[in-house]
Design a protein that fits this description.
With about 900 residues, the chain is α/β, with parallel strands linked by helices. It folds into 5 domains: about 5-245, ATP-grasp fold, A domain (Dna Ligase, domain 1); about 255-350, D-amino Acid Aminotransferase, Chain A, domain 1; about 385-520, Glucose Oxidase, domain 1 (3-Layer(bba) Sandwich), CATH 3.50.30.10; about 540-555 and about 565-575 and about 590-625 and about 665-745, TIM Barrel, CATH 3.20.20.60; about 750-855, no CATH class. The protein is built from 32 helices and 32 strands. The chain binds phosphoenolpyruvate and magnesium ion. Magnesium ion binds near residues 751, 772, 774 and 775.
């Protein structure tokens, strides 16, 4: 016997296929699921994707065997419903809904009322005592059929109707008012189809059905559907299924309507029927709306205005929720008081609602904490962490645009991507202001705090890119003007120069003069509860990259378990410090440098005291000075002249020094521990500041602070030995001066391939490692991280790389190095602490890898901390489950892993 291609469903029973959504389409699969749960669905059957596949080569006519099978299905439906196709008393009418495995644009729309013809329309009118209803349905059917099967233009039917209205007047109504007028209109439709389209509307219902199924099958090849499949890598051969079911007369009378119900109140997350129900219906063809009554289902529960069994509906959605173990939403219909479910799916929800529902479902005992954690996309939490403008202060609004990407941001105005990068390189936050953005501006958008454009809408390049990278954005601020020659932004009478501060609010579209005070949302309520779940599930520690008290406090509030990277150089750009720094750099000898460093010492110490106090005993990793000294020197003629005057030296000698420090490849030049070796007095000052601060903060809090001193860009064991020796000497000196011992750890930052290859020997003397995956990516790839944006976007577009390796760790390449480094380090020092502090430390996909690689912690920017906590929990849960599935009897082990590729 040939395999079956049609599968029936009706309340309480559904034919099963091995993979329903694959073979029955998502609509057919879902109806089969609901039927199997004994929920009221209209009876029907689904023609499987296998039938489509076998029919496709014929490009039209359905194979004979399939026709026979469909006929048998219709006979079955006649038996179940007690109605007859083309029947003389109660005609059977059908709805046809095509669907692929998942929603796909370009496929045929649902077609209703198949089975109506010149005879059955009259029969139906008599049966229901409602001629207008029957003819409305027939008119809609003819229009839909002609469009699907004969490719007719719907506007042609409108023209015919308009002409008829002009001819007969229809008693002033928008549709025929008498039976004869209806019949005349239908006759016009037939004439048009025959004369203009050279076809005829089949009067045999079964033939109508076959033609509609053929039309649905053919819609697979529509240009829109093809383009969609190409864009989403969906196989051309996956195909569609066609679901056919008995019509529900949901648009007739006060006891009929269409609704949408949810199993939960998304605003509270609590289990409660919510949704809406429309009564009164719409007019079929002309789409002129009658007065509609929309019922709030939650309210209808108190005043029984719902025309069907509302408690039953509540019970149905609750059963679906229990079955899928998730909040659900359903589309339903009521036909003359009888309730039918047509579709269900997990409830669509905002991020906040998703968090709420997940937590509430744990409280209800429907799912466990682990499943709740897996339900929330870590990156989506970013939406809950956007800053807002502190209201209450008078804001000087100078313009308004469209709210294109949420969050507020303040920064200095920069008019080009390059200027943005330069200012950010000097440690200053910027707002990139452009007439509109182009792909070449993306590198500037990445470094900017926010983006403002004069032109463009909420789907402009700027808006789309900004949302993608999570930056606040205001577009289309048309009242503002950019003058590129003068480098100004003007609004009415106000002129803002490049380098002056503005604030944008991506939620309201406001542009504000000056730096408004921003407020970060707090981590409270269900969000905090979800984070508690995450902390119970995760193994990886989550620290933060922070150097200012503001960052450190924010990170603590978000649950950071310490500082994994304090970049000390940022502290030297503040206030008058850069001047002292320059004194140090320009000093002719070590003694001169020491004098300047002596002035920096108290400043550094007080910075560290504050950080240690905020972190209250949690680990704090402080990195010794890393960037090339050239970065601290003035740039541009004016700044050089000003600096020379301030320092009381000749401009020429300042220029000579600047020139001497200039490097061809500063990133591969005199930086990191190389600086410490050339100028050990810098290490000495920083070590002293760190240890004295630890003693001071520890004394105040009555709890020992054990700082972690990190040596950057180590490549050779001897580099590390050299620097560590200086650190130990200073520690001994400080201990003697203070008359007490000081505890500290010294570790290496692993950012060079050579350090990986020598990780075993470096680990002999290093208390911890922190993988600096920014530099490690740069050096493994041989790609300058500052120049990468120029070509990596092309690489992504061309499919050469999938993701930017500076954002998501390149597991196959850089990851292999990390695995090797971890292995070598643990071989010589099994208890070594291993962390990561590059950008990838806050990226969920990378965190999955760091969990697998067995690192101890990740460190990321403060606002990534909640994201990292959740991502780390998910990574641990998934790894645990994978390990359990692979070796059910063994407990989890952590050997070297293969990264594939
Ligand atoms: C790194 O290289 O990964 C790192 C964190 O250091 P920086 O970005 O400061 O070079
Ligand atoms: Mg680095």
């Amino acid at each position: 016997m040939a395999t079956r291609k049609c599968f029936t469903f009706h309340r309480g029973a559904a034919d099963r296929t091995a993979d329903p959504s694959e073979s029955l389409g998502f609509k057919g699969a879902n109806l089969a699921l609901l039927a199997g749960l004994d929920l009221p669905v209209p009876p029907g059957f689904t023609i499987s994707t296998v039938a489509w596949r076998e029919s496709a080569p014929a490009h039209g006519e359905l194979p004979q065997a399939l026709r026979a099978e469909i006929l048998a299905m219709v006979e079955w439906l006649e038996g179940v419903t007690g109605r007859i196709f083309d029947g003389e008393a109660q005609p059977l009418l059908l709805a046809v809904r095509p669907s692929a495995r998942a929603p796909m644009p370009g496929l045929a729309d649902t077609l209703l009322d198949i089975g109506l013809n010149d005879r059955t329309v009259e029969t139906l009118a008599r049966e229901l005592g409602d001629l207008d209803f029957a003819f409305r349905a027939y008119r809609r059917f003819i229009e839909g059929f002609a469009s699907l099967v004969f490719s007719a233009d719907p506007a042609e039917f409108e023209e015919i109707a308009d002409a008829e209205r002009s001819r007969l007047g229809w008693g002033g109504a928008h549709e025929p008012a008498t039976p004869d007028e209806w019949r005349a209109l239908i006759a016009r439709y037939h004439a048009f189809i025959e004369e203009e389209l050279g076809e005829a509307l089949p009067q045999t219902p079964f033939e109508q059905l076959l033609k509609v199924v053929e039309g649905c099958f053919a819609s697979w090849r529509s240009p829109v559907a093809r383009a969609f499949r190409a864009a989403h890598a969906i196989s051309e051969n996956s195909g569609l299924a066609v679901t056919v079911h008995a019509m529900i007369f949901n648009e007739r009378g006060e006891k009929s309507g269409t609704g949408h119900a949810l199993s939960r109140d998304l605003s509270t997350g609590k289990a409660r029927l919510t949704g809406s129900f429309r009564v009164g219906g719409r007019e079929y063809a002309s789409l002129i709306r009658h007065e509609e009554q929309v019922l709030d289902l939650a309210q209808a529960q108190d005043d029984d205005s719902f025309p069907a069994d509302l408690p039953a509906l509540a019970d149905y959605v609750a059963r679906i929720e229990t079955h899928i173990a998730d909040a659900c939403e359903v589309d339903f219909m009521v036909g003359d008081g009888e309730l039918f479910l047509l579709q269900s799916r997990p409830a669509r929800r905002s991020v906040a609602e998703g968090v709420r529902v997940a937590v509430e479902m744990v409280r209800d005992g429907l799912i466990g904490e682990e499943d709740a954690l897996l339900r929330v996309d870590p990156m989506s939490l970013d939406e809950l962490l956007h800053p807002t403008i502190e209201r209450g202060e008078a804001a000087d609004v100078i313009g308004r645009g469209l709210p294109a990407s949420p969050g507020a941001a303040t920064g200095l105005v920069a008019f080009t991507g390059d200027d943005a990068i330069r200012l950010v390189g000097e440690g200053r936050p910027v707002i990139l202001v452009r007439n509109e953005t182009l792909p070449e501006d993306v590198h500037g958008m990445h470094v900017a705090e926010g983006v403002l454009t004069i032109r463009g809408g909420t789907t402009s390049h700027a808006a789309v890119v900004a949302r993608g990278i999570g930056k606040p954005c205001v577009t289309g601020a048309g009242a503002l003007r950019i003058d590129m020659a003068a480098r100004t932004l003007t609004a009415g009478g106000i002129t803002v120069h490049e380098g002056e501060a503005i604030t944008i609010d991506g939620a309201s579209g406001e542009v504000i003069l000056g730096a408004a005070r921003l407020r970060r949302p707090m981590l409270t309520g269900d969000f905090a509860t979800l984070m508690e779940f995450a902390d119970r599930a995760r193994r990886l520690g989550v620290r933060t990259n922070a150097e200012t008290p503001i960052e450190a406090r924010a990170a603590r509030a978000f649950g950071a378990e310490g500082i994994g990277l304090c970049r000390t150089e940022h502290m030297f750009f503040e206030g008058g410090r850069v001047g002292v720094m320059r004194d140090m750099i320009l000093a002719g000898d070590a003694a001169g440098r020491r004098q300047a460093l002596d002035r920096l010492l108290p400043m550094q110490r007080s910075d560290f005291v504050e950080l240690f106090e905020i972190m209250a005993g949690l680990p704090v990793t402080i990195r010794l000075l890393d960037p090339p000294l050239h970065e601290f020197l003035p740039k541009g003629d004016a700044e050089i002249a000003e600096t020379a005057a301030g320092l009381g030296i000749a401009e020429a000698s300042l220029r000579a020094r600047i020139e001497k420090l200039e490097e061809f490849n500063p990133m591969l030049g005199h930086r990191g521990c190389r600086l410490a070796i050339s100028y050990p007095e810098i290490v000495e000052m920083q070590t002293r500041a760190i240890l004295e601060a630890a003693i001071e903060a520890g004394g105040r809090k009555g709890k020992d602070v054990v700082p972690e001193i990190m040596v950057p860009l180590v490549g050779l064991r001897r580099e590390f030995d050299f620097v560590k020796q200086r650190i130990d000497e200073i520690a001994t000196a400080v201990a003697q001066e203070k008359g007490r011992s000081v505890s500290y750890h010294v570790g290496a930052m692993i950012e060079l391939p050579r350090a990986i290859m020598r990780a075993d020997t470096i680990a002999e003397v290093s208390d911890f490692f922190s993988f600096g995956t920014n530099d490690l990516t740069q050096t493994v790839y041989g790609i300058s991280r500052d120049d990468a944006a120029n070509f990596l976007s092309t690489y992504q577009r061309e499919g050469i790389i999938e993701r930017d390796p500076f954002q998501t760790l390149d597991v196959e390449g850089v990851g292999e190095f990390i695995v090797l480094g971890v292995d070598k380090a643990r071989r010589t020092r099994p208890d070594i602490t291993l962390g990561v502090c590059g950008e990838q430390g806050g990226d969920p996909a990378s965190i999955t890898f760091f969990e697998q690689a067995g690192l101890d912690y990740v460190s990321c920017s403060p606002f990534r901390v909640p994201i990292a906590r959740l991502a780390a929990a998910q990574a641990a849960i998934r790894l645990e489950r994978a390990v359990r599935a692979a070796a059910p009897s063994k407990t989890r082990g952590r050997g070297p892993i293969s990264t594939g590729g």
